[in-house]
Amino acid sequence: MRKVLTVVILLLFTTIIYLSRPDISYAKLLPRHRSSGGSSSAPISTRSYAGVSVSPSFMPGRGGLKVTFGNVQNAKKISYMLVYETNGKQEGVSGTVSPSDGSSVTRNLQFATCSSGTCVNHGKISNMQFTVTSELTSGKTSIKKFRIRV
Asked: Superkingdom, according to UniProt (predicted)?
């Protein structure tokens, strides 16, 4: 009789612990990022933070990066920097976007060095990183980094 009572108490205790834990069906899922999937014009990933969305994708032929900034009106200023290595040298492109440019702004960033109207495309690109820094209208600063596989 004592063993039966011990088993019943143990089962009751286990049931109470199991039922008192939080229901995981209410847990928030983290967003998944889309990969390029082999298509040269598909977005690498789209990330929204504090109301500003950033969507980079390769230009046709993978000769550059097309970046679309959405909800630009939610920021005072947006700056971006693309850095990559080519033939052992570090190269990069940087710029800014302002709310006066519109609510949705696109920038085409070429993987090339240009001088006097002549551009020389870069080859063997590696270690590419794209960073977006936003000064938001709320006064906060938001930094988002993308590691891009070529």
From this structure: Bacteria
**DSSP class of residue 93?**
E
The conformation of residue 122, written as its DSSP 8-state character, comes to -
pLDDT per residue as tens digits for the range 53-64? 999 999 988 889
CATH architecture of 37-148: Sandwich (2.60)
Domain ranges of the chain: 37-148
Give how far Cα 78 sits from Cα of 7, 46, 135, Å. 64, 16, 6
- 3-23 as b/e, with b when 16 or more CB fall inside 10 Å? eeeeeeeeeeeeeeeeeeeee
CA distance 136 to 96: 14
pLDDT tens figures, 120-142:
888 889 999 999 999 998 888 88
Yes or no: say if 102 and 28 are a contact pair by the CB < 8 Å rule. Answer: no
pTM over 0.70: no
Residues 6+ apart with CB under 8 A from 87: 122, 123, 124
**Residue in 72, 144, 58 with CA at minimum distance from that of residue 108:** 58
d(CA 91, CA 82): 8
